[in-house]
Amino acid sequence: MKFTTRQLVTMAVFGALWGVVEISLGSVLHAIKIPLTGLALSTIGLLVALIGRLFVPKRGSTFFIGVIATVLKLFSIGNIVIGPMIGILAEALVAELILDIFPKPTRLAFVLSIAGAALWTLIQPFVTGLLIFGRELLPIWLDTLDLGSRLFGLSSQAALWIVLALIILHLSVGALGGWLAWSLGHLVSLRLGGHSPEAV
Amino acid sequence: MTVSRLHPSSFQSGRTRPLVGSVGHLAIFLWSLGIVLLTPLRGGFIFACLCVVFLSLLYPFALRRILRPRWLILLGVLLVVSVLFGSGEPDLQVWGMPVSTENVISGIQMTLRAVVILLAADGLAASMDITEVAGLFERAGLQGLGFSLGVAANMLPNLRQSSMNAWHSLRMRGGMRAQWWRGLQLLLLTVLTNALRRSEDIVLAAEARAFRPDRSRAVPIRIGRMDWWLVGAGFVSLLGVSLFIRAFVR
């Protein structure tokens, strides 16, 4: 991955913005224990990163932005943050892989990439819980079902419906984020110079 | 926040080269993760204990942080959840509650694993400079990351301040009441536009100093006198642990 000075600075800006979201908003949301904090943070963070992709439409730029945000989160004071760090890196990687399928940035690519990355937040507790903390899958599964039944008011016996509803919720929120990222990215570029970001 | 928190370097013994450098700290982190991942939950108790002792001696500041009430409560919750909701059959009565010995043992081991990871991650974060982390990533193929991280770290306080200013001005003008959705969009637009305008100055400053990412030197990494020994010892011990587990635990 080779970038020009301008591209490096632009990615630094978007990485720092994602970092700000994680450090400021993330700390507040985790402190007040709002459900689906991970989904909200990943969608906002990726929205920022994908606007960055519009300004640096090169392979690897989204992952690069994610790495910057991860390192900033690593060095944020007072917290030991291995979960969010894995989360940011994995989300950036998923978004990057989906974006790389498309030859150039499009609204559909944005929608799919944030939706895919948002889905990761649902899967992550199983992966980190099992691989890193050695937790059994059953308690994580029960936590997920409990969250779903509280959110949707479904009986915890209806496991399939709860999981389906959670998947749809994650995909929808992510897709909305992708849609917004595309629109906002173009608005920002209009404000800055009046031309589309791909031409920058 | 402290972005460029410098390492306390509690292991610096010589004048020129520290005893344990960045490579060593990274090796210790990866070794701890390796031990935790390699050993099965049942039977990995002794290895996790050894890891905790080793990391506590190496990073006493990380141990002090874990002993704060907030972390103790979190770890306690992890233990209680594993004891109460584990899959083992109850064979004990504790305060009138049926408890399974198997769940208690699994819970303790799970908590130990969490402690190992927390100690290793905190130790790594506190022992390495942000630029050194960038240097490691650069060597892994992300060229220019050191420069970008420097820019990002320096921009962070300004970005936070300008975001807060934009948020307060929007709220004071009632921007979040009637059309909160539009208000949020405007907030994001303002923050992004301001940040990108500021980035223009940084690009000009870098180019004026003839900075070119392809010609820049890679960020130097501190290599301690014990680093390669630690890498070797970590590798050998991981190999030994995996052979031991294959032979005796599984």
**pLDDT below 50 for ≥5 consecutive residues: which ranges of chain A?**
none
Along the chain, the helix and strand elements of chain A come as: HHHHHHH
Describe the largest sheet of chain A: none
What is the terminal-to-terminal distance of chain A? 19 Å
Choose one word for the global shape of chain A.
globular
Structural class of chain A: mainly alpha
Number of helices of chain B: 9
Any idea what the radius of gyration of chain A is? Answer: 17 Å
The string of secondary-structure elements of chain B, in order, is: HHHHEEHHHHH
Which percent range fits the helix content of chain B?
A: 55-70%
Largest interface, by Cβ-Cβ below 8 angstroms: which chains and how many residues each?
A-B, 49 and 67 residues
What structural category do the secondary elements of chain B indicate? mainly alpha
- Biggest β-sheet description of chain B: 2 strands, antiparallel
Q: How many individual β-strands of chain B? A: 2
What is the helical fraction of chain A, as a range of percent? Answer: over 70%
Topology readout:
The complex is a heterodimer of chains A (200) and B (250).
Chain A: H1 5-31, H2 37-55, H3 61-74, H4 82-101, H5 107-131, H6 137-152, H7 159-192
Helix pairs in contact in A: 1-2, 1-3, 2-3, 2-4, 2-5, 2-7, 3-4, 4-5, 5-6, 5-7, 6-7
Chain B: H1 22-38, H2 45-58, H3 60-66, H4 69-85, E1 92-94, E2 97-99, H5 101-127, H6 130-139, H7 145-172, H8 180-208, H9 227-249
Antiparallel strand pairs in B: 1-2
How do you describe this structure in short?
The complex is a heterodimer of chains A (200) and B (250). Chain A is an all-alpha fold and 200 residues long.
Description:
Chain A is built from seven helices and no strands. By secondary structure, chain A is mostly helical. The two termini of chain A are 19 Å apart. Chain B is mainly α. Chain B has nine helices and two strands; from the N terminus they run H-H-H-H-E-E-H-H-H-H-H. In chain B, strands 1-2 form a two-stranded antiparallel ribbon. Residues 1-14 of chain B have low confidence and may be disordered. Chains A and B meet through helix 1, helix 2, helix 3, helix 6 and helix 7 of A and helix 1, helix 4, helix 5, helix 6 and helix 7 of B.
